[in-house]
Amino acid sequence: MSNEVLTSTPTRDAFTLTKPSFTVPAGAWDSHVHVFESEDKYPHVDKPHYTLPDGPLTKLNQMADFLGLAHYAIVQSSFYGTDNRCLLDALDKARDRARGVAMVDETVTDAELQDMHRRGVRALRLDLFLRAGLPTAQIVQYIERSAKRVKALGWHLQFYTPGKIVRDLIPFLGHLDVDFVIDHMGYMLESDGLTREDFDRLLSALKSGRGWMKLSGPYRLAKDGNYEKLRPLARAIVQELPDRVIWGSDWPHIPNGGRDTGELLNLLADWIPEADAQQRILSGNPARLFGFGQ
Asked: What is the Cα gyration radius of the chain?
């Protein structure tokens, strides 16, 4: 990952977003958003990769309301590291509208995890970018230790990881005995030497085990803006994992807050035009994954 500090730009006003071109199903989720508040109250890590994004809970709610998204999953960002106070306070305010994905040190206590559960956390995010230089065996051990912690709580794991690490983990993923989600469609960048064959092997491993895939971050995969080339990948994901795929906008689109979240939602409808599949991806699957209503 580059050492360049990116400058976050203002978030686009919700009323200027493109409206959904399809009927958003009842109970729809945005399964990948972040929240950022005042640096005076919530300090960032020592060397963040970007400046404070314009992503307060008030603007998140405006975006979700405008697009007809009933719920969202707030994912802890690398900006705050393992200090989850901003996330937890946002969950306290959002209440049953939201669920959370935390990042923790391995020294976290069971009591602390139980408190997070009470406040709406339902998953741990594993930042494997930070561990990309470790041998695969050590990464696997870290994942296994994390899986043991979440299994007792009925949570799942979410992998924020370079595609090369995902590829190296494929032989292991089919045997992981908790639910887990791969962010950003696997993050398998062609520029990193990853191929469609690697992607198909990943899908096979997820299908044979307990893996989920998140349709998110298209602009991180198609950096040239050619989202059409992602359509075959999205179609393959939904075909192989119909009941284990979710969608996330990655709002507030760090560092480009001006992105149109409505266009990203409509991109999903363009890739997956079938109404029953849209209902599963946006409503049924995330509600089940995040234990909503339980």
From this structure: 18
